[in-house]
């Protein structure tokens, strides 16, 4: 596309992964926005003060004049107004300095496969209120499969396990449709909450949600024995929950593996349930092809090995798992006529 046509275009196409933890927007085949799904609003006027990374820096640090919100919880919109304002703010980042005026927007948005009609309507309404004129919805496991490079229209079974911030999406895909799926509200946010509870119970130290997330990133693991690829202990600073005196607590990955045990076991059970409902011919394809892990949860150390050992089917962590859904929505945006499984 020439500079002139980009600058004066009346329509802009956006592919959006509207995630509980992060929102990714692709425009012109490039990642234009990759920001936390957080918005800061003035408590009295409800006007947006910051969005994305700037808003996340304010999280858990505000005064009574500002409220910082994560508009999505468990993969669905929890605060409609905040979500609309967040989308507007993130879309403005895409437009900034690129066009003389705001164009009409054509969007493809990834949504959880377990979404109800009401939840799908909430996403569509938010997108339309944020400027979308032509809005398509695409289930996240399907988007992740497309983003990995799988031919989703082929007569072959492929299984995707997409562990996001709010939900884990498990789906068997064949012939352009989801044959069996399981969407559970157990994902990255639950891992973070597990770590907060563990630090309070085991070490008597209060940690914020952001600190628990840093622990998860630095020493999060699904196995108590990672072999040679062991991360160094992470030192946590926080107040003693009884005395309020400052504490310094080193945390190792084995501790975190123990504290995440129950949550990971629920994901294992969900995968097994989805496999139970898979027709035998497709099951055989999955055993041959393996199962693909995407989303931020796929980065948990040792998770692929643990699931492989438990289920006896190879698990593969996708390349750049955080961006699979966004890339898939980008491909779908260019093939709206070809992909009949897109929802309007």
Structural summary, described in words:
This protein has 344 residues and is an alpha/beta fold. The protein is 38% helix and 27% strand. It has helices at 3-8, 53-58, 80-95, 117-129, 140-148, 188-203, 209-219, 253-259, 261-276, 280-289, 303-311, 324-334; strands spanning 11-18, 22-27, 30-36, 39-42, 48-51, 66-69, 72-73, 76-77, 104-111, 132-139, 158-163, 168-174, 177-184, 234-239, 246-251, 291-294, 315-317. The strands form five sheets. The chain has a five-stranded mixed beta sheet, with helices on both faces. Strands 13-12-11-16-17 form a five-stranded mixed beta sheet, with helices on both faces. Strands 5-4-6 form a three-stranded antiparallel beta sheet. A hairpin with a 5-residue loop joins strand 4 and strand 5 (48-51). The longest helix has 16 residues, at 80-95. The protein is flat and about 60 Å long. The two termini are 27 Å apart.
Which characteristics define this entry?
344 residues, alpha/beta, five-stranded mixed β-sheet, 27% strand, flat
Query: Percent of residues in helical segments?
Result: 25-40%
Largest sheet: 5 strands, mixed
Q: Specify the overall morphology.
A: flat
Give the H and E element order: HEEEEEHEEEHEHEHEEEHHEEHHHEHEH
Could you report the average pLDDT, rounded to the nearest whole number? 91
The count of DSSP E runs of length 2 or more, i.e. the number of strands, is 17
Count of separate DSSP helical elements: 12
Q: Brief overview, please?
A:
By secondary structure, this protein is α/β, with parallel strands linked by helices.
């Amino acid at each position: 596309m020439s500079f002139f046509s980009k600058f004066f275009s009346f329509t802009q196409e956006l592919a959006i992964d509207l995630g509980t933890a992060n929102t990714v927007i692709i425009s012109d085949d490039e990642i234009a926005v990759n920001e936390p799904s957080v918005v800061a609003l003035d408590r009295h006027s409800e006007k947006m003060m910051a969005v994305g990374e700037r808003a996340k820096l304010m999280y858990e640090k505000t005064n009574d004049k500002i409220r910082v919100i994560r508009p999505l919880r468990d993969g669905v919109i929890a605060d409609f107004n905040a979500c609309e304002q967040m989308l507007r703010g993130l879309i403005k980042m895409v437009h900034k300095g690129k066009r003389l005026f705001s164009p009409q927007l054509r969007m493809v948005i990834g949504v959880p496969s377990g979404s109800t009609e009401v939840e799908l309507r909430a996403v569509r309404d938010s997108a339309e209120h944020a400027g979308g004129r032509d809005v398509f919805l695409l289930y996240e496991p399907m988007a992740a499969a497309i983003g990995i490079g799988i031919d989703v229209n082929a007569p072959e079974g492929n299984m995707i396990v997409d562990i996001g911030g709010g939900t884990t999406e498990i789906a068997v895909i064949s012939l352009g449709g989801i044959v069996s799926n399981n969407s559970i509200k157990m994902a990255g946010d639950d891992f973070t909450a597990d770590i907060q509870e563990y630090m309070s119970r085991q070490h008597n130290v209060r940690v914020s949600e952001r600190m628990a997330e840093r622990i998860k990133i630095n020493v999060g693991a699904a196995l108590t024995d990672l072999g040679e690829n062991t991360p160094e202990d992470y030192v946590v600073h926080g107040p003693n929950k009884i005395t309020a005196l400052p504490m310094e607590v080193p945390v190792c990955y084995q501790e975190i593996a123990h504290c995440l045990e129950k949550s990971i076991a629920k994901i294992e059970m969900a995968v097994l349930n989805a496999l139970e409902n898979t027709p035998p011919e497709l099951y055989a394809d999955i055993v041959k092809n393996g199962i693909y892990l995407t989303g931020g949860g796929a980065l948990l150390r040792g998770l692929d090995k643990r699931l492989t050992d438990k289920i006896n089917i190879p698990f593969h962590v996708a390349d750049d798992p955080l961006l699979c859904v966004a890339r898939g929505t980008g491909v779908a945006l260019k093939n709206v006529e070809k992909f009949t499984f897109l929802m309007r």
